[in-house]
Amino acid sequence: MKKPLVVALCALAMAGTGAAPAVAAPHTARPAAVTVTYAGTVSLSNCSGSVIRFPNSADTDPALVLTNGHCLETGFPDPGEVITGQSSSRTFGLLSASGSRIATLRANQVVYSTMTDTDITIYRLTTTYARIKSAYGISPLTVNDTHPTAGTAIKVVSGYWKRTYSCSIDGFVYRLKEGDWTWKDSVRYTSACNTIGGTSGSPVIDTATGRVVAVNNTGNEDGETCTVNNPCEVDENGNVTIHQGINYAEETYLIPACFTTGNRLDLAAAGCTLPKP
Fold this sequence. Notes:
With 277 residues, the protein is mainly beta. It has two domains: 41-143 and 254-265, Thrombin, subunit H (Beta Barrel); 153-251, Thrombin, subunit H, CATH 2.40.10. The protein has helices at residues 5-14, 129-136, and strands at residues 41-43, 48-53, 62-67, 82-87, 91-95, 101-114, 120-128, 141-142, 153-158, 163-178, 181-189, 203-206, 212-219, 232-234, 240-241, 247-251, 259-260, 264-265.
């Protein structure tokens, strides 16, 4: 996991396009990249996050915020633990396209939180998408409902630091183990996304669609094996490898299937494979 704020501050202190194809080569047009800004991202007290909607969400639905499980204000969920319906009054700084804080949003519930198989917390806000749009001109980010693809150009947008990282999806990790926690089918970034503490919970955005495909959560900082802040990769045969300086995210395409009309969580819904309590 990315370090808490105080450690992240110390870390910060220390801290092209390809050639055109030959004329005779077949050409497949790629969608033009969208402009990714800070609009829709939020800052937490110790992490980053974003206001999200699903493909079938309505403007009148209560708005949701996505961040990491390890950013939960009551502490890290234990391995195997799934939290639903927990009362919350947490606040979030809503950012404009330029990164200015333009409003404070408030949660009334932790809808879902876990660090088992994935690393996510979803908050329900006291307002709707329509009210946020009307008051501040900000639309939510849409969570894509299909598996991301290796090679996809992405941006990791940190509302906490007001900093954006640009790279690509390098590949996927069968199991990513860190301390007592294990995550499945994690996203590995190429090295350009050298995220730091405080970027936990940042949305990972596909630059071709503008949709959220993952949530940033960790990286191997010291070259250790499977320890906190030093995740290791485990393949289908149990082989363990580490990549010091490489960072990771957890896929989000599984989430929409677990929400129904009115942005209500339904872990029994057809197609919902998120861990259950």
